[in-house]
Amino acid sequence: MNKKNKKVNAAIxxxxxxxxxxxxxxxxVAFISNWLNSKCGILVKEVRxxxxxxxxxxxxxxxxxxxxxYVFTTGGIGPxxxxxxxxxxxxxxxxxxxxxxxxxxxxxxxxxxKKFNDGRKKMAKLxxxxxxxxxxxxxxxxxxxxxxLSLPGVPSILVSMIENCKKYLIKGSRVHSKTLNLYTVxxxxxxxxxxxQKRFKNSVDIGSYPFFRLGKIGVAVVTRSTSxxxxxxxxxxxxxxxxxxxxxxxxx
Length: 252
Description:
By secondary structure, the chain is of the alpha/beta class. A hairpin with a 3-residue loop joins strand 6 and strand 7. Helix 3 packs across helix 4 and helix 8 runs antiparallel to helix 9. The chain folds into two domains: about 160 residues, Molybdenum Cofactor Biosythetic Enzyme, Chain A, CATH 3.40.980.10; about 80 residues, 2-Layer Sandwich (Alpha-Beta Plaits). It is built from nine helices and twelve strands. The protein starts with 7 loop residues before the first strand and ends with a strand.
């Protein structure tokens, strides 16, 4: 984690029919994205939700692992027949899908030999040469191979494991953000926002998001940058814009 790269990015691949069907609501994207930025300086640039289909998993793993510094997968590493993430990643990288010695020992110890059935043994089968992401909640580890980190889909278990990913990651520069809530409509400030964005195009991103609060329409103007100084400067311009147009600022 000592090496720094200002532009370190990641993709998140949510794997699971239960997410696509609407039966289960995903909670992992927001958590992983926030953790990566705040703790590691890594920006999530793409999120995909795909079914438990081997070819779909393989195609997405190959594409995203080439496009981004890291790929985080969630789901599909449990004991049932439709938990095929580890096997699919093995095929994607053309490595053997086999029992991982340490993972096997961890699970056998956790469940005991008598209760260590075939389903539980399946969770110890990983792509060859994988390194473990330890699980303090339910023992079954996640794994990393190349630049792909595979985690469980259960949010509480994922949260308990996430810090164990840090040792495998190269740290980037944290992106800071500031929000200015204005009582106005987007069309009233869109032209000026575009001009301000052009002046800071390589250093600050501006986003505008309408809201309805306390019976009034407003716009949340969100600025993001790795530079606190540039973030401060752009917000001076935004405050000046609000003053010139006599727009009320909502303080929360």
